[in-house]
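no rush on this but wanted to send it before i forget. theres a chain ive been looking at and ive put its sequence and its fold in C-alpha cell form underneath. please have a look and point out which stretches look like helix strand or loop to you. thanks a lot i owe you, the record is right below:
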Amino acid sequence: MRNAGASIDPPTDPFEAIPKPSRPVPPGARGPSGVKPQGGSRLPPGVSPDIFGSSGFGSPAGPAGPAGGSPGLPPAAQPSQPWQMPAPPERALPQRSLRDEPGLMPGGGGGSPQLEPLRYEEPLPRRRRSRTLVLVVVTVLLLAGLAYAIPAVVMSGKMLPGTRVQNIDIGGLTATEAADKLRAQLADKASREMTLLAAGKKYDIDPDKAGLEFDVVATIDQAPSDFPSPMEVWRALTGTLLLEPQISVDSDLLESAVKSLAKKIDVKVREGKVTFEGVKPVVVTPQDGRILEQEAAGGAIRKAFLGPEAEVRLPVSVIKPKVTADVVKKAAADADKALSGPVTLTYAGKQARLPVETLAAHLSFEPDDSGGMSPSFDARSAIATVEKNLVDPSLAPREPTFQIVAGKPKLIPGHKGKGIDDKKLAGDVAEMVTQGGSRTIPVTLATVQPRISEAEARGLGIKEKVSEFTTPYDCCLPRVTNIQTIAKLLDGYLVKPGETFSLNGVIGQRDTARGFVPAPMIQGGRLIDSVGGGISQFVTTMYNAVYFGGFEDVQHVAHEFYISRYPAGRESTVSWPEPDFRWKNDSKYGVLVKTSFSSSSVTVAFWSTKRYDITSVPSERYNITPFKSETDSSPSCIAMVGQPGFTIDVWRVFAQGGKEIKRVKETTVYRPETDLKCVPAATTPADTADTADIPGAVDASDDGDTADTVVDQ
C-alpha cells in the first residue's frame, strides 16, 4: 500500500477523467442527482461524500484535516494545472491570473476553480501584413501577364517589330507582305553581276548563270511565326532581329561557272628548259604558274552573293617552277658545248656518225632532285637511221605486224634480235654533255626485244578498218618520191593502247640514205628545196585518218598557206626537228597503220575496233585577206601563184549508235600566198612571162614541209 502520508508524486484526482462542467456550478445549484453540492463538490452522481468521513472529499478542509481533520484520510487533491505552452518567438503569451478566471476570486461562488484550455491566437497585425503581400504579388503578376499578353496578341501572325533583312525593315508585316517587299527591294541586287578579284585582275560573273538565286521563303522562315514567347515580345519591344538573306544554289551551274573562271585565271607553270633553233640552244626562262582553288572559290562566291562586299576575292595558289633561270642557263651552256660537232659511233671496225642536227633533236634536259637539270638523250630514236651501218640487218629484231588477207587482218609474228645497247649509249652521250671528253663513242650490242610481243599483238583487238583517207598528187615529182618513201617506212606500224605516236620520233631526220630526196618546202613565206620536202602530204593524209578514226589530236600545225588539194582546216605539216605531228591512241585497242600508194595518190588506213562515227562540219571562209605580188631574180627562186588568206572553223562531230556524243571546234587561219614571179636578173618585171607559161614552174601546192616561221604562227 502506498504511504497514507504525504506523497512525493503529484496528487492524482481519481475523477479527473470525468468531464468537467464548462463553467462553475453556482451556489445553491443541485447536481444531477438532486443533491446540492457542498462547497463546490464535484462528486459524481450517486456518490456520497460520507465515504470520505465527516468532512467529505472535496469539502473545504476543516480542523480535523491535515490541518486538523480526521487522521488517516488522504488530503484533498489539488486541482491539476495544465502545462504552460511556450509563447511564439515573436511574442510571449499574456500571463493570466486567478483574477481573470470566474469563480477563483474570493467570494466567487465557493466552487472548484475551472480553467479553460489555453489557445494560441496570431496577432491581428501580422495577418494583415501577409494578406497585403499576397495582394501585391497577385497584382504584379496580373499586370505582367497583361503587359505580355496584349502585345503578344497584337504581334501574333506578323513579323515581329524590329525584324530586318540587311537594311530592309519587315517588322509588323505578314509573311506575304514581307516576301513581296524583299523581292521588290532585293531584285536589282540579286540580278546584278558580281565583281570577282583574282591575281590582281577583275572578272564578272552573272549570278543567274552561276545558279545563284535569292530564297525569300527560307529567309522569312528564320523569323518566329507562332504566338510569340515573352522573350520574343521583349526583344521586339527593345531590340532588333537581323535575318541573313538565304540563297538557293544550283551546284552544277556554279561548278561550271567556276571552271570557266579557272580557264581565264589559271596560268600553267612554265618550266625552264632548253630548246633548239636548228642546232643553237635557246633558253626558255621558267615562270610561275597559278591555279584557282575552285572549291574554295565556289564557296566564296556563294557566301558573297547578296552580301555587302563590292568585290569578292577568290583564292589563287602560286605554282613555282622546279628549277631557276640560272640553272637553265647553265644547261644551255652545256648543250652548246655538246653540239660543237657530230658524234661518231664505232663497233667492230665500223663507224656511223650522228649529225649535230640529230643530237639536238634528241637531246633534252630534265629537272633533277638536287635542283639542277640533267641531260637526257633519246638514243633509240637517234640511231634509227644509222644502226644498220653498224649491225647486220639480218640480226636486227623484227616487230610483229598484220597483213590484210581477204579483207581480214592476219598476224605476222616478230622476233628478238641484236641491236645497239641504247641505254648505255644514252648514258655515254649524257656524260659527254656534262663533262666533255671524246666525241667518238664505242657502242656495244645487246639483245633487243620487239616493242610488242606476239601474245600482246593478238590481244590488241585489231579486227576491222576504222578509218581511211586518200589525197592526190601529180605523178613523178621529187616530192612524190618522199611521200612514197615515208609510206613504206610506216606500213604495218602498231600503236599500242595509250601510246602517243610521234612522226619525228618514229621516222627521225629525213636523209638520202633511206631514199629521201630534195623537194620544195615552205620557209619564210617562200619555197625552198630540202631533203624530205613534200612529206607533209603524207602527214595530212594520216591526220585525216586520225580525225575520222576518233583518236586524240595531240599536235598538228596547219600549213602557212592553203593548198587546194587538202580539205581546208583539216591538214597538217611537219619539219625536222619541229614542228612535229603527234596523236594519241586513247582507246583500249591497238591501231594498225596500213599505207598504200599509186602514181597519183597516197592512202592511210587505220585498223582497230571501231568506237565512233565521225563527221566533219566546216564553216564558210571568213576574214578574207588579199595577197601581194612580187618578183625574184635569185637563182633559187621558185615561182608561187598568189591566193588570198582566210579563216575557217571546222567542227568534229562524234556519234555512237546514231546519237551525237560531242563535237570539237578547230579554227585555222591561213595567210595570203604571195604571187611570186621568178625573173632573170637582166630583165625587168614588165618583160617577165606569167608563171603558167614558164616550163618547170612550181606552184605552192607542190610544197612539203614548213620551216621555223610556221612554228611562230
Residues 136 and 142 are 10 Å apart (CA to CA). The longest strand covers residues 645-656.
